[in-house]
Amino acid sequence: MTTLLRGTAALGHGAVRRRRAVAAAGAVSAGLLLLSACDKPTPMATVTVGSDSVSSEAACGGHGDTLENAEIQKCLQDDDVKSISVNADDTVRFGVDPDVADERWTILMNGQQLTDDTDNTYRTVPGSVFFNAQYGAQGDSTLVTIKAGDGKDDSEAATGLWSFKLKKDD
């Protein structure tokens, strides 16, 4: 039998619990500090053809700052982009995050403006457009870029670019 006062044996366990609680609080604080240092991901853009779709974060920009022309041209030369197959009879749907739509956006085809800018979150374009020489198409694939604007109607400024390759599906 023990002669310790009631609860005295548990005192040692209380110190251990306090140390664990302090360690847990420290770990949570450190985790929150690390998360606050992370960059916010750029908004997404999506291209959908039928039931297939591809999504991507911005290849350039995407955080609201205006891009320089040299940066835009370099970004438009990037070949490492997601692709999707398109039949001439398909409807191609383009979608952007509401944050991008609020600042207006347009669709470029091989670097040339294809549509007027809009503040809608999606647009549709007939698949035949992307392989028609009249619109500047060449060969069996076309580079399509979504260009985020600066919020002003018909502005030439770009704050983000999302590029996709549309491959001709026979």
Structure overview:
It contains three helices and ten strands. The mean pLDDT is 83. Strands 3, 4, 6, 7, 9 and 10 form a six-stranded mixed beta sheet that branches. It has a four-stranded antiparallel beta sheet with strand order 2-1-5-8. The chain is α+β, with helices and mostly antiparallel strands and 170 residues long. It has helices spanning 11-37, 69-76, 98-102, and strands at 44-49, 52-57, 60-61, 82-86, 91-96, 105-109, 112-113, 122-126, 141-148, 160-168. 24% of the residues lie in helices and 32% in strands. It has two domains: 1-38; 44-168, Sandwich (Immunoglobulin-like), CATH 2.60.40. A hairpin with a 2-residue loop joins strand 6 and strand 7.
Features:
4-stranded antiparallel β-sheet, 170 residues, Immunoglobulin-like, alpha+beta, 10 strands, elongated, DUF2771 domain-containing protein, 6-stranded mixed β-sheet
Q: Name the helicity range.
A: 10-25%
Distance between the termini: 89 Å
The unreliable regions are none
Give the class-level CATH name of the largest domain.
Mainly Beta
Please state the average pLDDT score.
83
Number of domains: 2
Tally of helical segments? 3
The ordered H/E elements are HEEEHEEHEEEEE
Radius of gyration, CA atoms, in whole angstroms: 26 Å
According to DSSP, the number of beta strands is 10
CATH topology value of the largest domain: Immunoglobulin-like
Sketch the major β-sheet: 6 strands, mixed
Strand content: 25-35%
